[in-house]
DNA sequence: ACCCTCCTACGTACGCCGTACGTCGCAGGG
DNA sequence: CCCTGCGACGTACGGCGTACGTAGGAGGGT
């Protein structure tokens, strides 16, 4: 193992953790396994990282920091909000196995504020400021968090929240559901994301009129 | 231990699991501990439950089934949607330590369809049917899932997604955030939930006009 | 009355886990 | 030359889920 010659570093350890998380999910991460992957003794990791929880935090921050900057070629605030939402979605889709972990964890302040600031700028363009802008941003975050949880944590092997409609349920008790059973069993995540996003934007526009 | 005389039952085991989850969270659940709590041998549990994952599923379903029916005294579809959203929120707040688990798990079909059917009924009242109603319901679910994740998984000891703004970040790089720093550090979950909910309803109303 | 079957309870053991602690070897400075 | 300090590592403890084997009792058939 060539890598076993390199000295152990916090960076190398976090790297390995991120790779492992992306490949097999957080629950696959263990100190022993990580050490083995690095060709090192288990306890050597503790010279660089105080414990597993911190290590996972560091991995989460590293993934968060990967968020790509993006450029929008438009003056319409709607396009900026759309671009921002798509960027968040892209991050979630690049790291499906890490998303729940990220969503459940306290954001690192730096990356958090970068995102918040962008959100506030976009709402500012739409004419929303101060308290109300914060409320709207939070509603947007909630929507994004929710859809992406549904999209990304939905694939069966990740253990998701999807409904699996055809499991011996007596549908006669649920007439309206029965009518749209096909829709309920189908997921077009692109389309759903777009639909919900436009719904949110429509809501903002409505507030703009007052 | 008086309870150790009772015969072991699936129901008794699931009950104990639910209690433990509510008291200390899913991660505190272990077969050994559960058995000890029931005054039984660890392996005896396996006569009633195939493995821990299924046991946790059963506990999740049991909690889900606790959802209280509610009555709305109004003809306005908005009030029905509000009531439904509040019911979901109440469930989440009654089981904060279980919510992330519930949100991450495949819903039991029965309870799932009950909720879906109510959602579809409410949207039907507003004049939305078929595919578009499904889309709207999913957007609502996303919003609810998101806000409630933020609300319920936010308390520090549960390891949440809240921002904690005052941690040596150079705010001069984030002027808009700096302006509303107080807002960002404050959480009024009642108010935020209501605000986001009205935002969603406003969006639906807008679609109604077309 | 007998036995046979089946179900439940339980003990043991294996292979994982996180990590406290102690030791060893080596690099650097005096 | 030795001393100090630090990184790497082995061992060990107490936890975990669960495969497997056994023992005991309850119920039914004869």
UniProtKB/TrEMBL annotation, chains A, B:
<protein>
    <submittedName>
        <fullName>TetR family transcriptional regulator</fullName>
    </submittedName>
</protein>
<dbReference type="Pfam" id="PF00440">
    <property type="entry name" value="TetR_N"/>
</dbReference>
<feature type="domain" description="HTH tetR-type">
    <location>
        <begin position="7"/>
        <end position="67"/>
    </location>
</feature>
<dbReference type="InterPro" id="IPR009057">
    <property type="entry name" value="Homeodomain-like_sf"/>
</dbReference>
<dbReference type="Pfam" id="PF02909">
    <property type="entry name" value="TetR_C_1"/>
</dbReference>
<dbReference type="InterPro" id="IPR001647">
    <property type="entry name" value="HTH_TetR"/>
</dbReference>
<keyword id="KW-0678">Repressor</keyword>
<dbReference type="InterPro" id="IPR003012">
    <property type="entry name" value="Tet_transcr_reg_TetR"/>
</dbReference>
<dbReference type="InterPro" id="IPR004111">
    <property type="entry name" value="Repressor_TetR_C"/>
</dbReference>
<feature type="DNA-binding region" description="H-T-H motif">
    <location>
        <begin position="30"/>
        <end position="49"/>
    </location>
</feature>
<dbReference type="InterPro" id="IPR036271">
    <property type="entry name" value="Tet_transcr_reg_TetR-rel_C_sf"/>
</dbReference>
<keyword id="KW-0805">Transcription regulation</keyword>
<keyword id="KW-0804">Transcription</keyword>
<keyword id="KW-0238">DNA-binding</keyword>
<dbReference type="InterPro" id="IPR050109">
    <property type="entry name" value="HTH-type_TetR-like_transc_reg"/>
</dbReference>
């Amino acid at each position: 193992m060539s890598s076993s010659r390199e000295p152990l570093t916090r960076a190398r350890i976090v790297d390995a953790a991120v790779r492992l998380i992306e490949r097999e999910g957080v629950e696959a991460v263990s100190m022993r396994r990580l050490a083995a992957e690095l060709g090192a003794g288990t306890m050597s990791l503790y010279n660089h990282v105080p414990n597993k929880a911190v290590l996972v935090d560091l991995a989460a921050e590293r993934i968060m920091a990967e968020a790509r900057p993006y450029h929008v070629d438009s003056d319409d605030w709607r396009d900026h909000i759309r671009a921002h939402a798509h960027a968040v979605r892209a991050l979630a889709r690049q790291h499906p196995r890490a998303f729940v972990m990220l969503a459940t964890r306290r954001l690192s302040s730096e990356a958090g504020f970068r995102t918040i600031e962008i959100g506030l700028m976009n709402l500012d363009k739409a004419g929303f400021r101060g308290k109300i802008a914060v409320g709207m941003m939070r509603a947007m975050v909630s929507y994004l968090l929710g859809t992406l949880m549904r999209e990304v944590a939905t694939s069966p092997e990740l253990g998701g929240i999807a409904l699996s409609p055809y499991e011996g349920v007596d549908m006669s008790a649920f007439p309206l559901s029965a009518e749209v059973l096909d829709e309920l069993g189908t997921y077009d995540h692109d389309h759903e994301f777009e639909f919900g996003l436009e719904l949110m934007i429509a809501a903002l526009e409505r507030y703009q009129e007052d």
